[in-house]
Amino acid sequence: MLCGGSLSTVAALHLDAGELMNILVTGGAGFIGSNLLRHVVRARPGDRFVNLDRLTYAGNLANLAEIEDAPNYRFVQGDICDGQLLAALFEDEAIGGVIHLAAESHVDRSILGPGEFVRTNVQETLALLEAARAAWARRGTAGRFHHVSTDEVYGSLGDTGLFTEDTPYSPNSPYSASKAASDHLVRAWHHTYGMDTVITNCSNNYGPWQFPEKLIPVMICKARDGEPLPVYGDGGNVRDWLHVQDHCEAIDLAFREGRAGRTYNVGGDNEWRNIDIVHAICDAVDERLGAQPQGPRRRLVTFVGDRPGHDRRYAIDASRMRGELGWTPRYTFERGLRETVGWYLDAGEWLAACMDGSYREYFERNYANKMG
Ligand code: NAD
Ligand code: TYD
Known about the structure:
This protein has a domain at 22-206 and 244-269 and 311-330 and 359-370: 3-Layer(aba) Sandwich (Rossmann fold). Helix 2 (83-92) runs parallel beside helix 4 and helix 4 (114-139) packs parallel to helix 5 (174-193). The chain has helices at residues 31-43, 83-92, 107-112, 114-139, 174-193, 215-225, 244-257, 274-289, 319-325, 333-345, 348-354, 357-371; strands at 22-26, 48-53, 73-77, 97-100, 144-150, 196-202, 205-206, 229-232, 238-240, 242-243, 262-266, 271-273, 301-304. A seven-stranded parallel β-sheet has the order 3-2-1-4-5-6-11, with helices on both faces. It is built from twelve helices and 13 strands. The protein is α/β, with parallel strands linked by helices. Mean pLDDT is 94; it is low at 1-11.
C-alpha cells in the first residue's frame, strides 16, 4: 500500500511463506486478543508481535503467561491514543501491520456509561489510524490495518435472514454505534488515503479467558455457585455463537489474505436462543459437579427485566470468508461449550482475581436495574 497512492495500486497483502512482518496488536490482553496472540506467536515464529494494551478492567496479563517470554513477543502497557508512544513504536519496531482489537466491548456497560465507548472505540481508533498513516508515509512503505469489529453494527434481525457484508448499518446500542463509527473511519481511510485496510465483523465469541461479565461466563460462574441465573426479558433473543479460536484463525487469515478495502463477516452458523444456552450450561455444570441437593441447576433460571434496546436476533452469512479465503470453523458448539464450561470450573484462581471490588460494583449497578 502507498499512503496517498491511487486505489489501483492497493493490492491484497498476501503474505507469502517466508515473508516476515512486525505486527502491532492492540488490546492483546483482552479475551480475543490474548487468544489470538497465544495462537499466532507460536504458529508464526518468524513474525514479531507487539501487544499494546492499556490494561483496563478487561485486560489481564495472566491470559498471556504462556507466551510472555517468547522471543517474538513484546508487551507494552499504553493507550492507543498516545501519539508519542505510537510514533515511537511504529518507528522502533518497524511495524508493518496492525491488528486492532482494543475497545470497550460490553453492551451493558455501554448502556451504563456510553462516553467511554465513544472515546475508546471512535476517538482512539482515529488516533491509531492517523499514527499508522503518518508512520507508513514517513517510511514510504505499505502497511496493513486490520480492524476487528462486530456483527452488532448491522442491528437486529427478525425471525429469518442473515447479515451479509451489504446489509446496511443500523446499530442500536451505544456499543454497536461506537463500533459502527470506527468501521466507517477505517473504510474512509481506505477510500480517501488508500490505506490497505481489512475489516472483519464477527458474531458472539465464547471460549476460555473471557472476562466474566458476558452471557456464557456469567452463567457458568453463577451456576457453579448455585446463584440465580439472570436471563434478560423472555430469553428468546438469538445469537450466533463462534468459538474464539475459530475467530482468531479467521482474523489471522483475513489479515494475511484479505483483499484491501474489503469487509468479511465471520460467524458460526450456530444460532441459539439465550434460554437454551443457559439450560445447556446448567446441564454441563450438573454433569461436571453433580446436581445440587435442591435439584438440577435449571431451577436457578430467573427471568429479569430486559436490557434497554435489546437486539432480538443476530445471524451471520460468512460465505465470503469461506469462499474467498477458505476459512472453516473447527469447533462444534457441543465440544466448544463442554470445554469452555470445564475451563471455567477449573479456573478458580483466575476468576477470583477478575472479581475484584470494581467487578462487584458493576454487577450491582447492572443487575439492580433489571431486578427492579
Ligand atoms: P475485551 O473487552 O475482552 O478486551 C479489550 C482489550 O482492549 C482489553 O485488554 C483492554 O485493556 C484493551 N483496551 C481498551 N481500551 C484501550 C486503549 N485505549 N488502549 C489500549 N488498550 C485498550 O474485548 P474482546 O471481547 O476481546 O473484543 C476484542 C475486539 O473484538 C473488540 O474490538 C470487540 O468489539 C470485537 N468483537 C468482540 C466480540 C465478542 O464476542 N467478544 C465479537 C465480535 C467482535
Ligand atoms: P452478551 O454476552 O452481553 O453479548 P451481546 O450483548 O454482545 O450479544 O449477551 C448475549 C445475550 O445474552 C444477549 O441477548 C443478552 C443476554 N444476557 C442475559 O440474558 N443475561 C445476562 O446476564 C447477560 C450478561 C446477557
